[in-house]
Task: structure prediction
Amino acid sequence: PNIVLALAPVATGGSVAINGPIATGRLQAAAGTALTLGDVTASGSTELSAGGLATFLGTVSAPQIDVTSADITVAAGGSLGQAGVTDVVNLIAVSDAPVAIGATDASGAQYVLNEDGDLFADTLNITGQSATGGAGPDVVVGDVQIEGSGAPGGHVSHVNLTTGGNVLVEGQVDFVNAGSGDSLAITGGDSIQIDTDGGAITMTGSDGGLAGSLALTAHDIWAADGALLDQLNADPSFAGFEQALGTNNGAVNPAGYLQAGGITVTMLGSSFLVQNSGTADQPAGLTVGDGGLHIVNQGSDPATVILFGQQTSGGTTVTGDEFLEQVAFEGAGGFTSDSAVNGCGVGAGCTPQTQPPPEEPPVPGVESILGPIGLMGSPSAMSGSDEFANDTSDDESSDDDEDSGDDSSTNVDASVGLINTGPVSIEPPIEEPVTSGSDAPGGGN
Result:
């Protein structure tokens, strides 16, 4: 039967199931264990609470829908929110066990949001809340597709995920058909980790280009492969972690694993680390569009930022030191001295490569150089040496040869070697023939 209520508060210590359609101004329903609803049409807010599973078999249409529960199910054919009607859907996941969102194999999850039905709202807020007053549950995000404001029919323009625990993204989060004003915001009380072995966050518009804005807020925000994440969780500043971040252990991914029209990263004083997904010569890790990359340190201590990435705008890709110059750094806490973007130090830039000195212009003519050339600059440069002065005296050369009894008639010092520069020669005259048995250095030419 139809149930028409101006105000319908329902509270019980057990379960509540209303399968018939409800039309009302405001609907409030609370169940100690399970809550099940069919079609609901409310002109005002709809506030629902379940100590256990909240199940929706039909369409719940209202400007604002709040669902607080330990678990949730939207059945095939059902819809939580209605396109063009619902402004906000607030889902409060009450759990001390992990919360799973999307297709994931997260073990031990209590609250699982991976529905056969639909979720429609301009803004979707998902909040992890501890059942016992703790900081909040960990959240594991698997494969999720979000239809943005550019999608035909129903859509979600803004998605906000918040918890006091950790957030692990292990699946593909694809925000498609995103408009320029669409947004995805993830806030973790401790850390946000993107396991690039299978995880990524991408926001694209209807044309396939980067769109929307991605906001990440936590003490630590890391995007790296599973092995490196394990090392960072054991010791965030282990010896050699900078080199490990610069090493790509998987397939080359030039676009990286974080992609959006703009990305804002807000740290609470710890670190933002993005592993290289490209090569040593062409580093990659994240890509931003016209909105750019903004990094904010809200902590009182310097934060560590080591990342690899690029910006694409107007068909132009900016990387390396040029990308560093485009990144906006904010926050009174500042950044550590080892912070770098694409290997370029924050506040210092990339160290230019040392250029070799220009080569001396060659002496005209055919050149042949044998033996040591350390003393060679030009023939005149050696005119002041003792060896050269002694070797250019014919009389002294003859006397030396006769006194020494050496079979060689060549008087060029062995430390200089035999040099023949074509038309310019520093070789002394030969007075005696050179025999095949000579011991003279250089051997003749």
The radius of gyration is 37 Å. Residues 394-404 form the longest helix (11 residues). The first strand starts at residue 3 and ends at 12. The CA atoms of residues 149 and 420 lie 80 Å apart.
